[in-house]
Design a protein that fits this description.
The chain is mainly alpha-helical. It has three domains: 83 residues, no CATH class; 67 residues, no CATH class; 94 residues, Orthogonal Bundle (Arc Repressor Mutant, subunit A), CATH 1.10.10. Strands 3-5-4 form a three-stranded antiparallel beta sheet. Helix 9 packs across helix 10. It is elongated. The chain starts with 21 loop residues before the first helix and ends in an 11-residue tail after the last helix.
Length: 290
């Protein structure tokens, strides 16, 4: 039986100017001297496991905190700042809850250049086509989101160019046949990413892992603007938790709210009920009689 191909790395290179990197310096200034140690711990997990990414969940801050003797809050705050500064790719994080970057992926490719082909997940791949890395869909039938990096073409400009041209022709044929489907998927992913990014900016913390699936479910019943408005209500009332926002969304979903027109109508009905209740009380607005 063939030996299974190794995915992760046994070691990874650290740039000699790691601590001088402007992104790292901003993280250190914001989060303290423990930041580089936590970042290196996360990088170690990325390179040793999948090689170029890690799934962000509640287990990650726990494992890092347990390993280094720091708090889980410290780990989360440093990851938040790392996403803000671009140390980790913001778009991929908010779409898929994945920590990765173009730098991580380039180091991964360089470290695996002796492998004939490397299996990657297309949605997580952020390196541009002009990076000298050839991505090929040949022979992949089990998952449309899985492709291969052909490492034989990484250092051969002529070979890479011919393969890239071949890949682009194939991609154009796929787009022609699935154009409408892809457009729908991308629009939904962008909406989820924008909502999670807005949550982070407005509430001031990362959304919990359960939030992404919940938001996707709410988008089946209501517009993007309704979810955004619910986040704004929580922030205005200083109830900066996902559970409070989730409560608002559940209530709106149960009331059949689908768009901001429904929200306005619901608010007006509530105002009228409140006004009717007030006017029906004979003791309100009465002047004191001498």
């Amino acid at each position: 039986m063939a030996r299974p191909q190794k995915i992760g790395l046994d070691y990874f290179p650290v740039d000699i100017n790691f601590l001088k990197d402007i992104k790292v310096r901003k993280i250190i200034k914001s989060c303290g001297a423990v930041a580089p140690t936590i970042l290196l711990s996360i990088l170690s997990s990325i390179y040793s496991d999948h090689g170029y990414y890690i799934e962000w969940s509640s287990d990650v801050p726990f494992m890092v905190a347990d390993e280094l003797g720091v708090s889980e809050d410290d780990v989360t705050k440093i990851v938040e700042k790392a996403i803000e500064t671009g140390f980790f790719n913001k778009d991929v994080f908010f779409r898929y809850s994945i920590l990765t970057s173009s730098g991580i992926q380039k180091r991964f490719i360089a470290a695996t250049n002796r492998r004939t082909r490397t299996r990657i997940i297309k949605n997580y791949w952020v390196i541009a086509d002009d990076s000298g890395v050839c991505v090929d869909n040949n022979g992949v039938n089990d998952d449309n989101n899985v492709v291969y990096v052909d490492n034989n073409g990484v250092n051969d400009d002529r070979s890479t160019q011919s393969k890239v041209k071949k890949r682009k022709v194939k991609e154009s044929k796929v787009k022609e046949s699935k154009e409408e489907y892809i457009a729908v998927v991308v629009t939904r992913e962008e909406e989820i990413a924008k909502i999670l990014a807005y949550y982070c900016e407005t509430i001031g913390s990362l959304p919990p892992p359960s939030a992404q699936a919940a938001v996707e479910g709410y988008l089946d019943h209501m517009d993007f603007e309704v979810i955004r408005d619910s986040i704004e209500i929580a922030a205005a009332e200083n109830k900066r938790t996902w559970s409070y926002i989730n409560g608002i969304l559940k209530s709106r979903k149960g009331s059949g709210v689908r768009n901001m027109a429904d929200v306005a109508r619901q608010d007006e009905e509530f105002r009228k009920r409140k006004q009717t209740k007030k006017s029906s009380n004979p003791y309100l607005d009465m002047e004191d009689e001498e």
